[in-house]
Amino acid sequence: MNLDEILKNIKEFYPEERERYVIENLFKMWLNNGGIQTYSSEIPENVQFPLAVDIGVIAADWPGLSDAITGAFHEKGWNIFYEKGFIIEYGDKKLGVIIIVIKIEDNEELKKFLEERQEIIENIRFISIGSVAKKMLLSQETKRLEIYSKVVDLIEKKAERDLLNELLSPEGEVFKFFASRSRAYIEQRTVEDLAEQIINNARLIKNVRDSKGEIQIWIKNMKTFYEELTGITIGAFERDLNLKEILDALSYSIGEFKVKFNKEFTTSDGVYVARLEITDIEDKPVEETKFQRIISTLTSLWKKKKIEKAERIDFIGGFEHYIRAIIPFLVNEFQKTKIPQIYISSLESTEFYVDFKIIFVLERNFDISKILDDIVKSKFFFLQGIHPKKLFGEASVHIIDLRVETPSFYYISEVYDGLKEIFKKYLPNFRDFDEGLRKMDVQKLERILERIKNIPRDLVKEFYYSIEDFFRVSETDEGIETLIILGYEALVKARSERNTAIYKNLDTGTYIGIAYENKELKYNKIIELFKDFELTFSRVIKDDYDVIMMKVSLNNLPLPDDKMKSIIESMEI
Q1: How far apart are alpha carbons 265 and 358 in whole angstroms?
Q2: What fold does the segment set 436-571 form as a domain?
Q3: Residue 333 contacts by C-beta under 8 Å, 6 or more apart in sequence?
Q4: What is the pLDDT of residue 192?
Q5: pLDDT digits over 108-134, tens only?
Q6: Which residues make Cβ contacts (< 8 Å) with residue 572, sequence separation at least 6?
Q7: Whether domain 3-138 has CATH 3.30.70.260
Q8: What pLDDT is recorded for position 182?
Q9: Do the domains 436-571 and 3-138 match in fold?
Q10: Could you tell me the strand order of the sheet in which 534-542 lies?
Q11: What's residue 419's pLDDT?
Q12: Beta strands in 42-116 (DSSP E)
């Protein structure tokens, strides 16, 4: 038999059309869900032997992926009839695709394969998940790898199913956790505590996303091999919380304490997680009776910052000013993608109700009345107002005011789930714009941090997040960089010399940094001086000083120098 006949027999037993079908399904599954995906063709009702059965795998490529997958079959005693493997380059990712074909000779072999197929698939998934991490860890320490494997095993047993991909994917929480912790940290804690901490990290991140940024707090006393500690994990949007504020809140709620370990990270869509392990001043864990006080203090801090943000919006022109920045973004996204855009913003929150403003950008002739009817029919949602529809080319903008009675919902995330359920009935493919906005925000912050090297990183982040959300994202990198630098320079001068106002003109406006001792409370007067111009304003309190950063323009142009000098003189700072 020559080579042509051999290849022909292989293709007759396992046709190219079937191979193509498996590859297409694997790639679609990866596009929808990412991570590691497996696919196995259905067994026909009328089986004719010999029978070709297959299992396909798509995963992030790494050296040895093919050997690891074929090993999962050999371990069960199966001989591989045919194997196909190649790499797909998709954007900046390299995906390994492997198809394994087994030749089944009779019913007994088919029964054995069907009994073992799911176990083989699970082993493939475990091997693929573990191998990226294991290769890195193996180059460090065997003990660390042993702990890693035990933690993965425990997480698979204890974590909710909807968290497993987030936890165990090649770049999931388990891998990130082990890659960013020291050998001592890993080895001094029990496998149970490590697994619980990692699961709670993923759970907090999910809850922050689902609740649109509501603070999440987890506290537990724990034992290491050397001491007892209180572990505290806090999650929120990065724009709403930072480590210094958390430490100040803890100091207020429990008095003096020692930080034995701290770790912060931010996800690509702006979810901030801080992990603290502390003791009291006598090196003892915090009493559990104080846990609720810690939670209450941190929650109050988070709410206070949200209220201050709402007050700042009101101060510079209310929500109408705010949505003038939002709507162009939403309209632009709709025009580019043709996907309906919805932005849900909570404005005021009390123990009895939460007020929302919801912005829809839809097709020009879309009838929103059915959505409004369903909202009105709900016993939990109360329609407070409907703004007149506005048209922007082929897009229509609808704005509604909604009140939700908080006793009706245990978690704020349930409010969003209820609203989305209504929206999906009539807009099955709508885009929740807030998530996209957060991703753009985080990416822009990283670029700004790269541009500004001579100002402390934490201070850059604090100044950045004090700037109004949509202005941060819509303004140029140069504009945001200029505001932060001017604010910082004004603060330095105010501390060493005197109260200061400095400015710089760019193409689209005048950028201003002002710093003064905050006991003088000048910011009301300062804002009043710019009432005739287009204004974006942010305020940061640093110790005894107010720092104000502003962009001012007239018809999208900077103010003349003589006008700026006159205004600065009028500030009397």
Answers
A1: 30
A2: Gyrase A; domain 2 (3.30.1360)
A3: 339, 341, 361, 431, 433, 436
A4: 96
A5: 999 999 989 988 888 787 666 555 555
A6: 522
A7: yes
A8: 83
A9: no
A10: 500-506, 509-517, 545-553, 534-542
A11: 87
A12: 51-60, 82-90, 93-104
Please return the burial class of 55, using the count of CB atoms within 10 Å of its CB with bins 0-12, 13-18 and 19+: buried
Q: Tell the burial category of 404 from Cβ atoms under 10 Å away from its Cβ (0-12, 13-18, 19+).
A: buried
Query: CB of 182 within 8 A of CB of 140?
Result: no
**CA 241/CA 261 separation, integer angstroms:** 19
- The 10s digit of each residue's pLDDT in 39-98 is 998 888 888 899 999 999 998 877 667 777 887 888 788 989 999 999 998 888 888 899
Query: Per-domain residue ranges for the chain?
Result: 3-138, 142-307, 318-409+425-429, 436-571
Residues 310, 321 contacting (CB under 8 angstroms): no
Residues ≥6 apart with Cβ < 8 Å to 17: none
Question: Which amino acid does the sequence have at 134?
Answer: K
**Which three-class secondary structure state does DSSP give residue 476?**
coil
Interval 466-485: pLDDT, tens: 887 778 877 899 999 999 99
pLDDT score, position 571? 80
| Model confidence at 316: pLDDT above 50 | no
Contact between 271 and 439 (Cβ < 8 Å) = no
